[in-house]
Amino acid sequence: MKKLKIDLHNHTTLCNHAEGSVDEYVRAAIAAGIDVFGFSDHAPMDFDPKYRMKFDEMQLYRAMVAEAREAYRQQIEILFGYEVDYLEGHMDPRVLEADVDYLIGSVHFIGDWGFDNPEFIGRYEHEDIDVIWQRYFDEVEKMARSGHFDIAGHLDLIKVFKYLPKNDIVTIASGALDAIADAGMALEINVAGYRKPVAEAYPSPALLKAAFKRGIPVTFGSDAHTPEQVGLFRREAEALAESAGYRECVYFRNREMIPVPIG
Ligand code: ZN
Ligand code: FE
Ligand code: FE
Ligand code: ZN
């Protein structure tokens, strides 16, 4: 089987906090040697609407990606997905039942606290870090058990500002990892963490090894919010996968998982 470079987590300006045209993202991906490039912009939601597309932009988003898919089909395969917030009471069938290649399930909220938003970083000082880590991974577990998603997004995002727990991280995450394995989902190696205070990929090496032991497949994501971020830290991500034991990664076409050797 041919080795492929996969990159399934990338945004567009529709989310209001990214820059660059779809064309620029795709050309950056081609320049970085990516073979399969997926857009997974923040899906619309009636909560936190500022940081995502609107429901009435879903057709435009589909059209933008479809146009690029056609225009670049000789050079790169382009896939269509969403990064969907797992947030109880705010998930919408228009998103969950959309015709996509894949859905990434991400937890960005504990209750109504957007814990990865630097605007609200002050709250960490008032929280028991072990408690919020467990609450975060309980949400990830529910996300996986919901059955709506193909890929678990940035598994340990709660480490973003480097507030680390005293308890063992693999133990805290074990319910979530079991649920991801039971759901037959993939886990992404997301390099956005390198651009954040924690300065490492999601997930950490220990969590990735625990995922490998459970037979959870991996995929890769730049989580690019600018064209310049496409393909950054690629070598680090591949080395991380290999040191955890992985030789294969996966991507999704029409919600079907396709394994390939890591490229
Ligand atoms: Zn974003
Ligand atoms: Fe995210
Ligand atoms: Fe993202
Ligand atoms: Zn993300």
CATH superfamily heading: Metal-dependent hydrolases
- Characterize the largest beta sheet: strand count, sense, and whether it forms a barrel: 7 strands, parallel
CATH topology category name: TIM Barrel
- Assigned CATH class: Alpha Beta
Polypeptide structure, described:
The chain is of the alpha/beta class. It has one domain: Metal-dependent hydrolases (TIM Barrel), CATH 3.20.20. The protein contains eight helices and nine strands. The strands form two sheets. The chain has a seven-stranded parallel sheet with strand order 1-2-3-4-5-6-7. Helix 4 packs parallel to helix 6 and helix 7 crosses helix 8. It is globular. It starts with 5 loop residues before the first strand and ends with a strand. Bound molecules: zinc ion (ZN) (2 copies) and fe (iii) ion (FE) (2 copies). The site of one fe (iii) ion has 4 residues, from loops.
